[in-house]
Design brief:
With about 120 residues, the protein is of the alpha/beta class. It has helices at about 15-25, 75-80; strands spanning about 1-5, 10, 35-40, 45-55, 60-65, 70, 85-90, 95-100, 105, 115. The protein is globular and about 35 Å long.
């Protein structure tokens, strides 16, 4: 396990960190890690995923931001360099939003993307 270099850091906004803490409380475990990953799928080729883990895997990098410990596997790291995780609440709905500077194209539904 390693820490991602500062230039590659994923940023977690205060609002997203508060929501993650709220979900951890619902899970009954405030020691969880937030896994953020990229997998193949969707109309543009790649999609994001998020979930809780009790411990990181051997090839994971760990980032701590605003009290949230984020783990990213080695495959996903290259797609998530410089990404920002936020939590949006609007009339159209609420949820986590990943703003990723590596995305070159995304689908109209906003659930998948591609990079160079």
């Amino acid at each position: 396990m390693e820490s991602i270099q500062q230039s590659q850091t994923i940023t977690v906004t205060t609002k997203a960190a508060e929501k993650v803490a709220e979900f951890m409380k619902q899970e009954g475990n405030s020691d969880l890690f937030l896994r953020v990953y990229v997998s193949g799928g969707g109309c543009s080729g790649l999609s994001y995923g998020m979930g809780f883990e009790e411990k990181p895997d051997e090839d994971d990098s760990i980032i701590e931001q605003n009290g949230v410990r984020v783990v990213v596997d080695s495959y996903s790291q290259r797609y998530l360099k410089g990404a920002n995780i936020d939590y949006i609440e609007s009339l159209m709905g609420s949820g986590f939003k990943i703003n990723n500077p590596n995305v070159t194209k995304s689908c109209s539904c906003g659930h998948s993307f591609s990079t160079e």
